[in-house]
Amino acid sequence: MTRVKRGYIARKRRKKILAFVSGSRGAHSKLFRTANQRKDRSLASAHRDRGKRKRDLRRLWITRINAAARANGVSYNRFIQYLYKRQLLPNRKTLAQIAVLDSNCFSTILKKELIV
C-alpha cells in the first residue's frame, strides 16, 4: 500500500488553531498540542463567563434601582412588587439607566405611582 501524504488539510487545521491562540504566551502559542488545549480551555471559559456576565449585570441593575428607590424612601422589594401589582413588567436595565442618569425622573416615577 502506498504512503498517503495528508497534504494541506491537516496543516490548514493546525494553522487555524495556532492563529486562534496567537496572543498566548510561551508554548501555548507555538506548540500545537498545548495550543489546542489552550483553545479548548478558552472556549469553555468564554461559554461559562457569558452566563456569569448576565448574572453580574442583573445584580448591578438591581443594586442601582435599590439605591435610587431607597433615596426616595422605598425598598427595592416594595418598588418591584408595586410594579407587578400594576401589571407593569419591570425592565431592570432601563430602570437602572433612569436611576443613574436622571434621578429626578426616577423620583417622579415613584411619586406619580404613589408609592412614596
Automatic annotation (TrEMBL):
InterPro entries, alphabetically?
Ribosomal_bL20 (IPR005813), RIBOSOMAL_L20_CS (IPR049946), Ribosomal_protein_bL20_C (IPR035566)
Pfam families per UniProt: Ribosomal_L20 (PF00453)
> So what does this one do?
Binds directly to 23S ribosomal RNA and is necessary for the in vitro assembly process of the 50S ribosomal subunit. It is not involved in the protein synthesizing functions of that subunit.
Cell location: Plastid, Chloroplast
Major localisation:
plastid
Query: Would the keyword Transmembrane helix be found if you checked this record's keyword annotation?
Result: no
UniProt keywords (A-Z) are: Chloroplast, Plastid, Ribonucleoprotein, Ribosomal protein, RNA-binding, rRNA-binding
**Could you give one GO CC term from the UniProt record?**
ribonucleoprotein complex
Give the residues annotated as coiled coil.
none
Molecular function as annotated in GO = rRNA binding; structural constituent of ribosome
Q: What PROSITE patterns would the database entry show?
A: IQ, RIBOSOMAL_L20
| Protein name, entry field | Large ribosomal subunit protein bL20c
* Keyword flag rRNA-binding: yes
Q: State the family it belongs to.
A: Belongs to the bacterial ribosomal protein bL20 family.
Q: Which gene encodes it?
A: rpl20
From the broadest rank down, the organism's phylogenetic lineage runs: Eukaryota, Viridiplantae, Streptophyta, Embryophyta, Tracheophyta
Q: Which GO terms describe its biological process?
A: ribosomal large subunit assembly; translation
